[in-house]
UniProtKB/TrEMBL annotation:
CDD domains: BFIT_BACH
Protein name, as recorded: Acyl-CoA thioesterase
Family: Belongs to the acyl coenzyme A hydrolase family.
One GO MF term attached to the UniProt entry: fatty acyl-CoA hydrolase activity
UniProt keyword terms in alphabetical order: Hydrolase
Organism: Streptomyces ochraceiscleroticus
Length: 184
C-alpha cells in the first residue's frame, strides 16, 4: 500500500484502510473560548471539527483537501472551560474526488473522574484538490470493522440525500426563473 496519490486512469489508486488516516485532536478549553453563558462557543468546537476532519482528509488523499460541506453538526452537551476536548475523525466513505469524514467530539470534564462524554458529532465532505484547486481522485477507503462498514453504508445514504436535495433545489430555482417569478 502507498500513501502517494497519482492522477492516473480510472481504478489505478490503491485503497486505504480506514485506520490509516483516523486521528484524534485534543484541546483544553480556556476562557477565550466562551460565549455569553460562560460555556464554550459552538464555533470553537466547529473549528476543531473542521481541523480534525481536514487532517484526516489530507492523510487519506495524500495531499490538499478542502471542506465542501459540513452537515448534521450536533451539539449534545455543553463544553466548559477546563474540559479536555477530544475530536475523533475518520473517513467514512469515498467517491471519485470527495470523502465523507465523520467526527465525534468527546469531553473529559476537568473536575470529574468519569469517562469522556460525547458532546457532539458532525459529517463533513472534503474534496481533494490539485495545485490549481481542481478536484483530483482519492483512493477508495477500505472499511475494516463492522462499525466502519455501518458508517460507510450510512454515508452512502447521506450522499444520496445530499445530491437529491441539491438537484431538487436547482430544478425549483430554474423553474421559477423560467416562469419569470425570480431573476436568474
Ligand atoms: C469543493 C470544490 C473543490 C468542488 O469543486 P467543483 O468544481 O464543484 O467539482 P465537482 O462538482 O466535480 O465536485 C467534486 C466532488 O465534491 C463533491 N461536492 C462538491 N460540492 C459539494 C457539496 N456542497 N456537498 C457535498 N459534496 C460536494 C462532488 O459531489 C464531487 O464528488 P465526487 O468527485 O466524489 O463525485 C469547490 O466547490 C471549492 O473549491 N469550494 C471551496 C472549498 C473551500 O475553499 N473550502 C474552505 C472554506 S473557506
Amino acid at each position: 500500500m502507498t500513501d502517494l496519490v497519482t492522477d492516473g486512469p480510472e481504478g489505478s489508486l490503491p485503497g486505504k484502510p480506514t485506520s490509516v488516516s483516523r486521528t484524534t485532536l485534543s484541546h483544553i478549553m480556556d476562557a477565550s473560548h466562551t460565549n455569553l453563558l460562560g460555556t464554550v462557543h459552538g464555533g470553537v468546537i466547529m473549528k476543531l471539527v473542521d481541523d480534525a476532519a481536514g487532517a484526516v482528509a489530507g492523510r487519506h488523499s495524500g495531499g490538499p483537501a478542502v471542506t465542501a460541506s459540513m452537515d448534521e453538526m450536533a451539539f449534545l452537551e455543553p463544553v466548559r472551560v477546563g474540559d479536555l476536548v477530544h475530536v475523533k475523525a475518520q473517513v467514512n466513505w469515498t467517491g471519485r474526488s470527495s470523502m465523507e469524514v465523520g467526527v465525534r467530539v468527546l469531553a473529559e470534564r476537568w473536575n470529574e473522574s468519569t469517562p469522556a462524554q460525547q458532546v457532539g458529532s458532525a459529517y463533513l465532505v472534503f474534496a481533494a484538490v490539485d495545485e490549481n484547486g481542481k478536484p483530483r481522485r482519492v483512493p477508495p477507503v477500505i472499511p475494516e470493522t463492522e462499525r466502519d462498514k455501518r458508517r460507510y453504508q450510512e454515508a452512502q445514504i447521506r450522499r444520496t440525500h445530499r445530491l437529491a436535495r441539491r438537484r431538487a433545489i436547482m430544478e425549483l430555482r430554474e423553474r421559477r426563473v423560467a416562469e419569470g417569478v425570480d431573476e436568474g
